[in-house]
Protein 1
Amino acid sequence: MFEQILVQTVNGLVNGMVLALVASGLTLIFGIMDVVNFAHGDLVMLGAFTGAVTVAHTGNFWLGLLVASLVIAAFGALLQITTLRPLIGRDPLTTIIATFGISLVLQKYALWQFGPTAQNIPQPIPGRFELFYLQYPWYRLGAAVMAGAIIGALYLFLKYGKYGIWIRATTQDRVMASAMGIPVPWVHTGVFAIGSAMAAASGVLFAPLAAVTQTMGFDFTLRAFIVVVVGGMGNLGGSILAALFISLLEAYASLVVSPSQAVIVSFVALILTLLFRPTGLFVPTPK
Amino acid sequence: MNPRTNTGFWIGFVVVVTALAVVPLGLPEFWRKFLTEILIWGLLAMSSDILIGYTGMVSFGHSAFFGLGLYGAAAALLVLRSPNLWIALAVGLAAAAVVAMFVAYFATRLRDIYFAITTLVFSQIFYVIIFTWTDVTGGENGLYFTQPPFTIPGIFSIRFSTVSLHWFVLAIVALSYLALRRITQSPFGMVLQSIRENEPRTRAIGYHVERYKIVAVLLSGLFAGLSGTLYAIQHRFAAPDFVFFTVSGEVVIYNVMGGMGTLVGPVVGAAFFLLLREGLSRFWAEYYLIPLGIAFTLMVIFMPQGLLGFLKRRVNQ
């Protein structure tokens, strides 16, 4: 039993890091643009498919990761310019509805383009190590580390990069940033592109752990929503902690009930959070 | 509200209802059932309009109310030895009301996107429960049951034909529409609209915003549950797919396409969407959602008042 709990802890942390990568893209987009991106999970899915196609053609996983991120970033920028830019200044609810429409289109597009059969990316890091009673694949740890590295790079970029500082300035005060000569509309586009690239990267990292299907997007959207609300909307650090927290909860719950029922635990976590700390679990209580 | 527009409304109402009652007589079986189905989905769309259009709360979880109405009616029809129409309706409504109460309790604390996300999560909770609790709900296979006859207790009992079922559904939907219209035009409905326009100000004037929201969610859930029970009676099966998010998403589409905050609009939206799907899916299978989704997104951006609002504006020009 004790060993099972430890194994589930590792599983939870690995899934949590991938989820954190998805959620930090979502929370970045929300924090700066007030856009709740319903199509975020579908960007994860498209990224996974783009990665799978690239890997199938070149045989190189890392190239697949790079190509998927770049392609989906460009696609995200296009999406932002065509559909979200006209909505600036409208109610955030309008953006949920608009991105919901986009999510429908992306899902059926993937079905049309890639077919209904699940696709796979072989694990790029071979080998397993012994974790108590089972052979644990190295790649799972590698995926978690990669996800962590990408989030770390984002953090450093936001903290020290010139454009990162633009982004933070826009988050704090859109009007003032614009007065200082920051091209705010393009910062929005850039942020959406970065968020999309992060979604795509997590899709590719996730693909070797499970099959890639065109319906996987909704699941990611739902889980990322939960994480972002539990962590506090627009709060990057909070989202990462919340992603780990939720994934660990689900991992432990699946010791007791079936994995499909374990999801309910994270739903309940969300509801309790909204009841008792609607601003998020991992932010200081506002005075 | 002057008397002339009121007479105009009643004339229009009687004409539309009569047309809807007479038309199926000349339609082939398939389209007759299809028209009944449009009415049922139209009722669901109207029910969510109370929240989306009138109170300004976007519910992404209407499938929960619909599904519980559906499963509630299913339970009543399966458990009773002789299936009874009115008991099925009552149990379906009760089940939807319980869920609505549950959701409404939380809805009082949440606004905007938080409300949308929470309703989505709630509907998924019910989906997971129904999907995995195979012993009771039949899981993925769903439940099959027999259609109850139309009865007036103590007087007579007659099996539904497709036409009489259509009339029954039409009667319920038309009455629901009148009830909803009355509600939205009442002082209560006005307060809901003022919550949509400016919540802090409504609160400042002295209205207990939370209570109004609870009642709005309850009403919306009840009418959504009613449409679920009607669906159960027409189709004689219940499946977890009807509790899944897709249904909630389609309800939002009906509202946006038809025109939020008009009650008739969502019904028109439902009819438009279902007809389009029926026509397009013959050639494009599931891919009809690609053009439809693009059209939907464009409508959100350029035509937020929906088809009906757009036409109205055109006529007025």
Note: Strands of chain A lie at 128-131, 134-137.
Protein 2
Amino acid sequence: MGEPYRVAITTDADVVTARQRARSMGGELGFTSTDLTLLATAISEVARNITAYAGEGEVVLRVVRGLNGREGIEVIAQDDGPGIANVELALRDGYTTGGGLGLGLPGARRLVDEFELQTTPGEGTIVRLVKWGRDVG
Amino acid sequence: MAVPILKQGPWLIASIQSALTDTDVLRLQDDVMGQVGRYRSRGIIVDVTALDVMDSFVSRSLRGIAHMTRLRGAETVIVGIQPEVAFAMVQLGMKFEDVHTALDLEEGLAFLQSISKEPDDGG
């Protein structure tokens, strides 16, 4: 369990900062370039949801170790925004309340190995992602 | 950071230099649309070789450029999508099939030349 690295998300430039930071952390763990790109893209989606729906929040990045010794990167994207009224719909491809393509959450889920969504309408949303590195040797 | 757009004959070439914020992407859309009218361009190449992430917003915006310029009589080709980025776009569920793509700038220019009509000089 590494030190958490927190990125405050208030502007679209912070979204870029969060994904670039994750990319460099993953690079240090020896992630493949494909996995780095999948992780960075997933972070971009969940961090953009913060600026689009909540206005502000944060992304917390941390190196985690699995039971099998594999290392991964955990991403927690959290905000105190309006929350998501219907989680099932929000995770369905093509559903959007924000005028986008409706690929953000369902797409991000497909890009990572673990995905959890906790939300309370009126209180906020927490999305937790984990991308594991490949087994080496 | 603004994306430089070069005019080369009937074509516009927008070469993305570094990671784009959403604001940069929207500005690129506006700039391309403005220049297509100003220079009466017939084709646009957007070179995304430098992009390490094409998330749903960037993808949708580039597709928007392609659709909007087509309504103005110009074809857009997106060139240089990196292999990892292509992989992530497919996983994301991003559909790009109504947008012209090419491997690189050279292929993109060749494509635009191939679809542009021969000028009718009355001969």
Note: Chain A touches chain B at residues 11-13, 15-16, 19-20, 23, 33-34, 36-38, 40-41, 44-45, 48, 93, 100-101, 103-104, 106-108, 110-111 (CB under 8 Å).
